[in-house]
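Quick one, T. Sequence first:
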Amino acid sequence: MLVTVSIKVKKELVELADKMVEYGIARSRSHAFNLMIEKGINKVQEEIRFWDSVYDELKRLRSSKTRIRHGKLSDILEEGRTR
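Structure tokens:
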């Protein structure tokens, strides 16, 4: 059973929740906060650092005009967002 509660959280946690939604780790902020509670903040921060590095590297490759042909990284990243 789900219950709605209203809480105040640090701005950093909201930013973390927004990144979780952006990267497809969570479907919504509410889902993100539930995952943080279930997994623990440290585990979520570790996962975000990983995805930050993946997206940073993808941006670097795109800016250097590198074509990603094998492995279809773009498809994998898109698929990850829809989960």
